[in-house]
Amino acid sequence: MSELNRQIVLNEIPSGRLASEHFRLVESPRPTPDDGQVLLRGLYVSLDAANRAWMQGATYRSALRGGDVMAGGALAEVVESRAAGLKPGDLVFADTGWQEYSVLPGRGLTVAPRIEPLTNLLSVYGVTGLTAYFGLLDCGRPKAGETVVVSAAAGAVGSIVGQIARLKGARVVGVAGGEAKCALLTRELGYDAAVDYKAGDTRRALRAACPDGIDVYFDNVGGDVLEACLFNMKLHGRIACCGAVSQYDGAPPPHGPRGVPGLIVTKRLTLTGFVVMDFYDRKDAALSELREWVKSGELKVREDVIDGLENLPSALIGLLAGENIGKRMVKVA
Fold first, then answer.
1. Cα 247 from chain centroid?
2. Integer CA distances (angstroms), 299 to 138, 276, 279, 295, 302, in order
3. What is the mean pLDDT of residues 269-293?
4. Contact yes or no for 76/96 (Cβ under 8 A)
5. Distance of alpha carbon 278 from alpha carbon 53, whole angstroms
């Protein structure tokens, strides 16, 4: 075990698009746990669009500042424990930040099972899968025969949302960027139709794909796609607001969705924002159902694993540009 700890530090808060110069790789002494703490070695770091949102100000966590170790969750292994209930070799998911070693309080850490592949603990059996499950089923509440639209449909959360909607008997339309992603949605993941938002008039394309309107929209992107869906929602439609990746990186859009108040009132729409931790009291039941779907082959898991701690900045920049299909993560050990 190295005496040094490699870390990715946020050099400065970007004022425009995130770039590699906003980060730097540093080395520091490996930390030592005190009573009640554990020393963790990161295995896989989770990458999410929310990483960029944390640079813009306080959300459900404190805002990041220049000079901070970049924040992020990881699947990690206990190396040394001075906390009851945790021993070397245990796996945990923890807010370690972008570094090889971290020290955290043992209280609140839950041991994860050793499964193959381990990466599934960050994707379908982690925050990603639970976000898709609860966001769709609790906030969107789809019924058999309804039309569900999912944005960022080839991404980590979206690729699972659409498949769950199909399992619940809905007709599913995915919105994604590029012909290759749209083809994957319909040919591999079972979507009924796909709309390429890069191809032109998204509102018109959605009307063609959803001629009877949209019952449920799972929103991962905000911006123009949200606006296009709002104008095609059916009476009493439901929108699950998961994220707004179109607004996280670079200059803010010149306008938000237009005509929203009138649409919400006249169509009696329900917009529900959520954070997955709201549902953690029921996560065991959700994980049990997700495991059954994966085991039966009804739910396909797509993952995008990049190797090397030093590649975390470029991997996040690429995710924000839509490079990934499925859950992106970086293997650090």
1. 15
2. 19, 20, 21, 8, 10
3. 96
4. yes
5. 19
242: its two tokens? 């998961």
Q: How does strand 303-307 pair with strand 327-331?
A: parallel
Structural domains for the chain: 4-122+302-331 (3.90.180.10), 127-276 (3.40.50.720)
Label the pairing between strands 214-219 and 147-151: parallel
**152 phi-psi bin (left φ>0, alpha ψ -120 to 50, beta other):** left
Query: Which among 158, 174, 166 has a CA at the least distance from the CA of 302?
Result: 158
**Separation of alpha carbons 240 and 136, rounded Å:** 7
Q: For residue 306, which of 316, 297, 298, 296 has the smallest C-alpha distance?
A: 316
Nearest Cα residue to 253 out of 279, 286, 276, 221: 221
**Band of the pLDDT at 257, cuts 50, 70, 90?**
low
Model confidence band, residue 158 (pLDDT cutoffs 50, 70, 90): very high
Token reading at 275: 């954070």
Q: What are the Cα distances from residue 168, in Å, to 43, 146, 195, 268, 276?
A: 34, 10, 21, 24, 20
H or E element: which one contains 270? strand 270-273
d(CA 273, CA 278): 11
How many C-beta atoms lie closer than 10 Å to residue 62's C-beta?
11
What's the Rg (C-alpha) of the chain? Answer: 20
Tell whether the model's pLDDT for residue 312 goes beyond 90: yes
> Which residues touch 92 (CB under 8 Å, ≥6 apart)?
38, 40, 75, 76, 77, 78, 86, 109, 110, 111, 112
| DSSP structure class, residue 203 | H
